[in-house]
Structure formats: C-alpha cells, structure tokens
Design goal:
Layout: E1 3-8, H1 15-26, E2 32-37, H2 42-53, E3 56-63, E4 66-72
Parallel strand pairs: 1-2
Antiparallel strand pairs: 2-4, 3-4
C-alpha cells in the first residue's frame, strides 16, 4: 500500500478538496493520502467529503495554522 502526500497550503476552497479528489482517484483501495492545508474551512470540508465519498478519515489535526488530514481510500 502506498502513501501520497499533498501540499495544499495557501490554496483556498475548493482547491484542497479538488487536489485530494484527484489523488484519491489515482490511488488503490487501502492507500492513504496525507494532505496539508491552511484554509480553515478544509477541516469541516474534508470530514464531510470523506463521509460522502466512502473514504476513511484516519486523522485530522491542526498545528501552527496547518491542518493535516490522513485519508484512506475506501
């Protein structure tokens, strides 16, 4: 299983989600994607996006104004 990393810092909505969607499409089931974003709306967006798409939000944290989410492709 692979892990992909996305740097979406500095992008505003919907940029981080669009990048996440693009990467998840290319990933295999069970792969994980680590994404970092600075748009504070991303925290709520990524949780809702995972629920809607059937992917698993493994972790979500914020430190020094950077939101880091780890998602597993369902």
């Amino acid at each position: 299983m692979a892990e992909f990393k996305i740097n979406a810092k500095g992008l505003q909505c919907p940029g981080p989600i669009v990048q996440l969607f693009t990467q998840i499409k290319q990933a295999a089931s069970g792969d994980t994607v680590l994404i970092e974003a600075t748009d504070h709306g991303f925290k709520k967006d990524v949780a809702a996006w995972c629920k809607k798409t059937g992917n698993t939000l493994l972790s979500l944290e914020e430190k020094d104004n950077v939101i880091t989410a780890r998602i597993e492709k369902g």
